[in-house]
Amino acid sequence: MSWLAPEHIDPPRGPDGRPQGPPPITWRLGMGLLGAVLGSFVSNLDTRLTTFSLADLRGGVGYGVDEAAWVAAAYNIAQIAVVPITPWLAGIVSQRRAVAGFVILATLAGALCPWAANQGYVWFLTMRFLQGFGCGALIPLLLGILLRHLPLHQRIYGLTLYALVTVNTPLVSEWIAGILTDIVHWQSIFYFAGAIGPIVLGLVLFGLPTEPIKLEVFRVADYLGMFLMALFASLLTVALDEGQRLDWFSSAFIVSLFAGAVVSLVAFVAVELYQKAPLVNLRLLQRRNFSGGLTIIFAFSISTLGTSLLLPQYGMSVRGFRELQVGDILLLPALAQLLVCAVAPFLLRVLEVRIVLALGLLIVAMGARLSTFVDSDWVRADILPAHIMQACGQPLIMVSVVVIATSTLQMTDALAGATIFNVVRTLAGSVGGAIIGGILTVRERVHSNTIVDHLVVGTVTRPIGALAGEVRRQATTLAVADAFGWMGLIMLGTMLLAMALNETKLFRAPAVGR
């Protein structure tokens, strides 16, 4: 994965002295890359669709709050558990077969979800788990495919596509979810991705090269390391997803999950330090750009959730919006991201990567600051400026942090580095959601108590029910403003870390005639 050339890394070179890399892209390979990008987009989209439309799923299937929560948890567990084994599996069966297999699994399981819902709760959970298992592998596979098949001087364009898939999907999916649930039917959520699956499968099988199966990889695999990492990630994901609902450490179940996650993490570190062929070379964390990039991923996850989670929270709880109304607001920021992604490669060519990263963090911080002025009467025109600003900064953050995090990785470190990066990236969403959920809950209680304390007895003319609803609405608005404020502060703090990283230089296109 030494597709970048920092000053202290000497990339492999050919007889002419130029950096070695894959040959130019053919139109057939381009179709295969398009299929991988489309598959990852649909995978990310499916995750968001069922998250945003959970209330409609509950109403359509007839599940209670606890049952519906485990429907989402089953998907999330499978999605994170598959990440550690994805690079290893692709190394055995090839990227082409791996993508095809996971697309088939995700498509069939998703299409069977409405049927399974009528067969019983266990059947529905099983289909959701299998669907998450298939979808969770596609985005890690996309990164590996782009890095392997794009020429060195063009990989920045592939990373921009990767960034677009990661940050644009949360915005677009709210709009699509609104159309499917408000206009069509809740079951269409599952059929939507299933309809695109055959297209993805055809493009991938047609375009990606056929490679032999390498069964000898089975003999050197770190099976214990893969199991412990998957166990740690799964336990932590469930604890973070269910902690808010079960009141965190007041629940023995949540405490047990966190304890199990800690034990499995300690065991994983011990195994990797003494394993001859470890799944993850933990010494990679000693490299400043790699460990710093992983740290920034957590802050990045909060920046994306600022738009894709806080705005729906405000719109539905305070303004009474449906998914489609929130989606209409998020659609314009999504279009603005497309423009930013178009110019991001140019910025990375003319500016040092750390500068582009810091610029993205600053833009998101400024947008978060504008969002702290939110009130309960904001309309579309009030909401859009701040969220367009945040959306525009997110692609710059994502593409820059991928470049920086992997800039010091040699080919021998590629598998370990990709595994760590994708596990951290996937976990970051759960961690960020838990952090923002905690801020909203705590600050809403504080503001509710403050508002009630300032009510003067004898001057209140509203019925108690209406008054309680208005207090809750105003407290939620203030809590959302507080969450945006914290998000802005985290972005500003991350800027300092970004500037402390080592300089990263991109490969240039070979000079014509040399």
Please tell me how large the radius of gyration is: 23 Å
Number of strands: 0
Strand content: under 5%
Order of helices and strands: HHHHHHHHHHHHHHHHH
**Helix and strand composition category:** mainly alpha
**End-to-end distance, in Å?**
25 Å
- Describe the biggest sheet? none
The number of distinct helices, counting runs of at least 4 residues, comes to 17
Mean pLDDT value: 79
- Stretches where pLDDT is under 50 for at least 5 consecutive residues are 1-19, 510-514
In helices, the fraction of residues equals over 70%
Instruction: Specify the overall morphology.
Output: globular
Structure notes:
This protein has 514 residues and is an all-alpha fold. 75% of the residues lie in helices and 0% in strands. The chain contains 17 helices and no strands. Helix 2 (54-61) crosses helix 3, helix 3 runs parallel beside helix 6 and helix 12 runs antiparallel to helix 15 (380-405). The protein is globular. Residues 1-19 and 510-514 have low confidence and may be disordered.
Topology:
Elements: H1 27-52, H2 54-61, H3 65-81, H4 86-93, H5 95-119, H6 121-136, H7 138-149, H8 155-184, H9 188-207, H10 223-243, H11 252-274, H12 288-317, H13 323-350, H14 353-371, H15 380-405, H16 414-453, H17 464-499
Top keywords for this entry?
514 residues; mainly alpha; 17 helices; disordered N terminus; disordered C terminus
